[in-house]
Amino acid sequence: MNEPARHDQDPAFRNPALSPAERVDDLLGRLTLDEKIGLLHQYQAPVERLGLRGFRTGTEALHGLAWHGPATVFPQAVGLASTWNPDLVRQVGEATGDEVMAFHHKDPQSVGRNVWAPVVNPLRDPRWGRNEEGYSEDPWLTGVMGTAYARGLRGGHAVLKTAPTLKHFLGYNNETDRCVTSSGLPPRVLHEYELKAFRPAVESGAAVAVMPSYNLVNGRPAHLSPLIGSHLRTWAPDDVLVVSDAYAPGNLAGLQGYHKDLPEAYAHAIKAGLDSFTQDDADAAATLGHVRAALDRGLLTEADVDAAARHTLSIRVRLGEFDPATPYDDITHDVVNSPEHRRLAREAARQSITLLKNDGLLPLANPRTVAVIGPLADALFEDWYSGTLPYQVTALAGLAERCETVYCEGADRVALRTEGGYVGASADPDGGPLHVGSERSCFDVFDWGGGAFAFRSCANGRHVSAGEDGVLSNDQPGPNGWEVRQTFRIEERPRGVVLRNISSGRYVTVADGVVRTTDDPDAASVLSLEPVESGAARAAEAAARADVAIVVLGDHPLVNGRETEDRATLALPERQEALLKAVHAANPATVLVISSGYPFAVTWAQEHLPAIVWSAHGGQEYGHALAGVLLGDDGPGGRLTQTWYRSAADLPDLFDYDIIASDATYLYYRGRPLYPFGHGLSYTRFAYSDLELSPADLAAGGTLTARVTVTNAGEREGEEVVQFYTHQRRSRVKQPLRQLRGFVKVRLAPGESRTVSVDVPVAELAFWDVTRGRFVVEEATHKVQVGASSGDIRLCASFRVRGERIPPRDLTSGPLDAADHDEYDGVVLCDAALDSGDAVRSTGPGAWIAFKDCDLGDQGSSACVLAVSSDEGGVVTLRLDDPLIGEVAGAVSVPPTATRHDFVEVSTPLAGAAGVRDLYVVYESEGVAVSALGFCP
Q1: Which range is the signal sequence, renumbered to this chain (predicted)?
Q2: Is 65:117 a contact under the CB 8 Å cutoff?
């Protein structure tokens, strides 16, 4: 077809009849080099001569629009996923996208349409501080939910409503030292777990942008990952925009020290695929100066800049920025917190509520009086990425609308006494500096776990905060902000306690009657915490007078488990658990309601209480949803998307990302969890029958259909999430114990039956074969397991797959990458070069890596050549069949090398190495890295 004529008054990039690629080509060709460089920052400069407005990336919209004033607040992401309802999650994304557009129309410069959501990091470890931002520990379920939310955000037209951005690529599950720690991802974990969570939303086109993570992966900063080009961009049907995380580019030459200066670092980042630098807030000058310096030094070419600018312009074209009109022009502020969105928030909260235990107490049978107790009973909290609550329906408010309630917060009330008198607080509603005097003043103490306590002044109901000047004042509504200045540690001293502000690390002291903080621990004022009233005792009295007690406990989303802070334990805060025990002793009819962004090890409650309910922080309609479930208007609709462990002792090290070797997540965990993945009870009972598999014998390209009949065997209508898992019975490699392959959420009336099914393409049963560097479907028998959770399997059946048989490793086909080993001990994965490639480095003498089933030939290989690197040199031994007592086939001396990226080749004759054997590379020295092995016939 002929290209339409181009006129300056009607440039091609403004013609919606052309393809996005044609429009981008036209616009890119009109820009100068400086103008193209100006597109590489979060705050893109306008190009007035072409009528291009400024463009800003990065509007937060994780579970509703955030940071721009009141907007509908939906349940946290982990709560949305616990609905096991992708269509509902899509609707929430759609509503959020509409509200983004409404705010954008009012203030297009502040509220951009590139939204930084969803988060699709698999929730590998429940101690991760950002647990509430993700969806599930299962990568497939994460992909389903992330795709649903992104699809809602992007809208249903060819023109994007918003441009959803997946966070955070890749291997990101720890806040502790997050900018300098490296996540070790062996090939199977990389391909079967981490990448699997990102691919669906990108491949389907639901997400059109990706944000790399702060951490390093196998020793290389994630912002420099070659996987951006080799995987992310190859999955996508269109251009993908890659935006940096905030201030992460500066780390490349700063905290991470990966490059000597920023021009060099930024050149590498752009070549690796980074398109937009989120650095120095709105001030783009320094970043763009470093890019220009990289060009001047020959580290970048204009073609490199063009590639990055193209990705940015592609998104802007697809957002309809240059169109005469878009399908979203009529969205007004009326959609924000509209009745429809309120109803959706309530339904999302209801379906997210998960019943963990019920001995028959729930649903409540017309209670006359309900005691509503706990620090979260009459409070809703905003997390760092939630919007501003337009209104709050707390648990107390929701129940109070329905029945007579008695409320007790349950906080201990104390006085703080020093040698000079009592710590006092201002009665002014806005608060004022704390002081010391003779009159006793009281404070309520809140235990948020992990040794974090908050103090609320009884004088005005405001929390104590350490100001930037160090002075303590009772002037805050509660813990808040990026730097939470309202929490303290209580440290024991011989004559009492001292308080230490967690944010600043400074100690509380009294100087000239003013209460402030000091860096000197010896100058800390020793305090006595004089009990005034026991919160547990007051709560027990309230519970004793009621028919039933509802105790609402959990976390504060900004304290002890948030961005920048991991948890050390899974336990409930000590004073919260003491409160629960006191209430239960006073009234056995006690329901524990947990509101949290992560699992707790509520082992005592599981053993002693009749009923336990969990949900993530549920947004503005939480109280209505909770009251409806507790009182039986509808059943709990949630199921867990994470394993709830009995103790942190059941978990591997926080920094151990190898879920396969460490038996982590429900996929490999061999212990008995407190609550298994997929767990969630109903107010009725469901029976499973007639599991059928068709066909039961499949070729590699086939599709298995699994059908089962589910019957409501109880007396109430209810919802069931029918879950289908598979397990490969025999394999060359360690296989998951069970793996989710599909689910169906059904609502059934009493006595009603329904047959449900899922289709499982055989290709989805593939695993990563390290011997050949690709996915493979193995010849094997598999078992289908169907049930109400991964730990409540009701029916099983077997099917056979006629796949491949993995042959022995062919050592003559080329070099053997050291990272493609089968097993290991005492090693870490590291970067073999700045831009690409992995190596394996020993962390101490006696470390080893194993290559199973190596075909050394009938006559054997005559020599092995290893690519090695070491600061100080060392020795590597090759053994057969065992790393300790196996026959020595050869050994090499490793010379010291100039840098860790300088690999040299060393060789050794192989003695007696013939046939198919297991080959062990044994590191006799610490700090030796091996990148590859080659074999000579």
Answers
A1: none
A2: no
- The candidate with the shortest Cα–Cα distance to 150, out of 103, 199, 76, 206, is 206
- What SS3 state is found at 743? strand
Asked whether 71 and 64 are in contact (CB, 8 A), the reply is yes
Q: Mind listing the pLDDT tens digit for each residue in 340-394?
A: 999 999 999 999 999 999 999 999 999 999 999 999 999 999 999 999 999 999 9
Element of type H or E holding 289: helix 285-296
Assigned CATH topology for domain 25-318? TIM Barrel (3.20.20)
Provide the residue ranges of all domains of the chain, joining segments of one domain with +: 25-318, 341-409+539-650, 420-525, 684-802, 809-936
Spatial neighbors of 2 by CB under 8 A, at least 6 apart, are: none
Give SS3 for 254: coil
Residues 709-762 pLDDT 10s: 999 999 999 999 999 999 999 999 999 999 999 999 999 999 999 999 999 999
SS3 content of the chain, % helix, strand, coil (to 5): 25, 30, 45
Tokens at 345, concatenated: 């928030």
- Cβ atoms of 217 and 185 within 8 Å: the answer is yes
Give the list of residues 6+ apart from residue 727 with CB closer than 8 angstroms, or none.
735, 736, 737, 738, 739, 782, 783, 785
Query: Structure tokens of 20?
Result: 């996005």
Rounded CA separation 871/394 (Å)? 60
Determine contact, residues 418/436, Cβ cutoff 8 Å.
yes
How many CA atoms does the CB half-sphere of 316 hold within 13 Å? 24
To the nearest 10°, report the CA torsion of 654, 660, 664, 669. -160
- Does the pTM surpass 0.70? The reply is yes
Q: Write down the residue that tokens 């490639």 correspond to.
A: 837
Q: What's the whole-number average pLDDT of the chain?
A: 96
Residue-wise pLDDT tens digits, 225-234: 999 999 999 9
SS3 at position 867: strand
Cβ of 732: how many Cβ atoms within 10 Å? 18
Name the residue type at position 353.
I
Torsion of CA 541, 545, 547, 553, to 10 degrees: -20
Residue 216 has pLDDT above 90, yes or no: yes
* For range 170-189, the mean pLDDT: 98
Per-residue model confidence (pLDDT) at position 2: 37
Classify domain 341-409+539-650 at the CATH topology level.
Rossmann fold (3.40.50)
Asked if the model's pLDDT at residue 126 lies above 60, the reply is: yes
Q: Which long-range contacts (CB under 8 A, 24 or more apart) does 625-628 make?
A: 625/346, 625/347, 625/349, 625/350, 625/352, 625/353, 625/398, 626/349, 626/353, 626/395, 626/398, 626/399, 626/593, 627/395, 627/398, 627/399, 627/401, 627/402, 628/350, 628/398
* Rg value, the chain, Cα: 30
CATH superfamily for domain 809-936: Galactose-binding domain-like (2.60.120.260)
pLDDT value, residue 637: 94
* Amino acid residing at 364: L
Helix, strand or coil for residue 844? coil
The Cα–Cα gap between 497 and 793 comes to: 52
Strands 590-595 and 611-615: parallel
Per-residue model confidence (pLDDT) at position 4: 37
| 684-802 classified as CATH 2.60.40.10 | yes
Picking from 189, 140, 175, 202, the residue whose alpha carbon sits closest to that of residue 838 is 189
The arithmetic mean of pLDDT across residues 220-225, rounded, is 98
Instruction: Check whether 32 has a pLDDT greater than 80.
Output: yes
Q: How confident is the model at residue 307 (pLDDT cuts 50, 70, 90)?
A: very high
Our measurement of the distance from residue 378's CA atom to the centroid of its chain's CA atoms, rounded to an integer in Å, reads 28
The pLDDT confidence band at residue 861, using thresholds 50, 70 and 90, is low
